[in-house]
Amino acid sequence: MCATRALTPAEQIEMTASLDRARDRLLFLFGLYTGFRIHELLAIRCGDAWNDGRAAKEITLARRQLKGGDGRKARRVRARTVPLHPALQAALQTYMQASFPNGGPPADTFLFKSRKGANSPITVGHAWRIIKSSARRLGFDHRIATHSMRKTFARAIYDQSGHDLILTQRALNHSAITTTSQYLESTQADVATAVLGLGGPLHPLPPKVAPLEQRPTQATA
Predict the structure, then answer these.
(1) Most buried among 23, 45, 75, 197, using CB within 10 Å?
(2) Which residues, including other chains, have CB under 8 Å from residue 194's CB and lie 6 or more apart?
(3) Architecture of the structural domain at 9-183
(4) How far is residue 67 from each of residues 48, 102, 203, measured CA to CA in Å?
(5) Spatial distance between the Cα atoms of 56 and 50, rounded to a whole number of angstroms
């Protein structure tokens, strides 16, 4: 199976517009602007991002909500705090006010709530189908799926930081920088742009020097 890829800026706009349900559109924006994994996004409760009738300035997910946070190596996992981008805050504000016009929901209500059950989030499979179906309708290639949101976030942070790999690693909460580097896929077009953008003139290679035994000897007077 081919790995997922990041979305281009134009694709992000098209995907956002193509998602008809406000909940699905907010899920997509949360993925783009926070870089949380899909199961981490689905663990978000309203109280994590909505306080006193307004969008929070940042969101913190506890260790148990993160990848590996409830497994054998849970002690290595730390809570992750991400500031909410103004565009995401605005989208959240609009969604919450439209969905709960008579006041905010209980803090423990899942933000991306399923219509099935009293209080449960949509499943990872359902979220995958939402993103996949949107990409197919738009004619995007098969490498677009839920993990594309996290990879898009990674590429955006990497570019915004002036290609700071350490900062990008921290933003993604990766334990190894090699994992971060795998998120930053380069295309042949990227390579070509880099080559053609080289400043010049480059230092020329030094001329070859013949070995001593091959050098012409000076004629004696």
Answers:
(1) 45
(2) none
(3) Orthogonal Bundle (1.10)
(4) 17, 35, 48
(5) 5
Tokens 């080559």 belong to which residue? 195
% of the chain exceeding 90 in pLDDT = 60
d(CA 21, CA 197): 43
Within 8 A by CB and 6+ apart from 55, the residues are 49, 84, 88, 89, 90, 92, 93, 96
pTM: 0.81
The 3-class SS string of 179-207 reads HHHHHCCCCHHHHHHHHHCCCCCCCCCCC
Q: Where are the domains of the chain?
A: 9-183
CA distance 100 to 47: 14
The predicted-structure confidence for 116-138, as pLDDT tens digits, reads as follows 878 999 999 999 999 999 999 99
Q: Are 11 and 155 in contact (CB under 8 A)?
A: no
